[in-house]
Amino acid sequence: MTTDTQPPTAAMPRLTSLSHGAGCACKLSLDELTEILAGVSFPDDPDLLVGPTTGDDAAVYRQPDGRVLVATTDFFTPLVDDAATWGRIAAANAVSDVYAMGATPRFALNLVGWPRDLPFAVLEEVLTGATDVAREAGYLIAGGHSIDSVEPLFGQVVIGDTTEDAILTNAGATPGQAIVLTKPIGTGIVTTALKRSDELTPDDDGPLAIAYAAAVASMTRLNRDAAQAAIANGATAATDVTGFGLLGHLHRITTASGVGAHLDAAAVPTLPHVRDLLDAGFVPGGSQRNADQAARYLATDLQGPDRILLADAQTSGGLLLALGADAAQDVVARLRDSGHAAAVIGAITDGPAGSIEVATS
Known about the structure:
Blueprint (H helix, E strand, L loop, with lengths): L29 H9 L9 E3 L8 E4 L4 E10 L6 H18 L3 E11 L5 H18 L2 E9 L4 E11 L14 E4 L5 H10 L10 H13 L4 H9 L4 E4 L4 H13 L2 E5 L9 H6 L5 H9 L10 H7 L8 E5 L1 H13 L5 E7 L6 E4 L2
Parallel strand pairs: 4-5, 9-12
Antiparallel strand pairs: 1-2, 2-3, 3-6, 4-6, 7-10, 7-11, 8-10, 9-11
Helix pairs in contact: 2-3, 4-5, 6-11, 9-10
């Protein structure tokens, strides 16, 4: 028996068929967001240590006791068809911003947009997946907010804390430092291939199935270990790689820090078979926009698949760190020992500010 608010479940659609974009690829582009925010005047407050001006991962607000609150929010449309996996990815993605600031997550609020013709039982699975990640990360889910929406949406507001002197921002990179990436890229390409392909079955063992399994493992892996390794080894700048792609987020570090960067494309870790999927034409719209806009700050005439891949819109991507060369090697070794596909992928240069030079061989 059904109610007037819930449909029969026999014709349950694929979650990815209900979204116009995959995960963080549905974000506004970096240039669009920059243009919008340029027209908004935000109030000043001396206790707001990190706010909208540098485009960092989270807001940081000084408390009277000397500690600081770190607050972030992230939500997006389905990028996988399994509801619990979507919830896990969304929670890992949201809490990543707290880790990127060098803070400890304490609690979260869920954000839900849900079509009334999609069974609420599916939403329960999404919330269960998110709860599993929160339990692993050690933070509480304290409530949330839901609305009736055309597309399903899910994410979290996450609140963390730390001390003022422990904050990592995107503005602390200095020339001569190494650049470390702690997860492989390519999730946007893989999830776009999933969205445009027939539903995967347990018997699949082709390139997409292999790439998808690796992508899910990467997207559900917390950035907690990476953040702890970065702090222990004296990282001075950090961000996580999400919807603006590796190039876009590295550009944000170089812009906020007033430096340039040299990137070794061959050193960047990628998901298995991602280049095969890219060659087959699976390019997210958000990744294409990122690649087009990269012409504004690239110091290299980078074309073809490398440009798309390096600009690929990531969901729950790795941390991008700037730290001393010896410390970078220690971070990479420590993370690889624990299963992360971390690598030194380049170096911070003395500019021009915001520019990125890419070596492809």
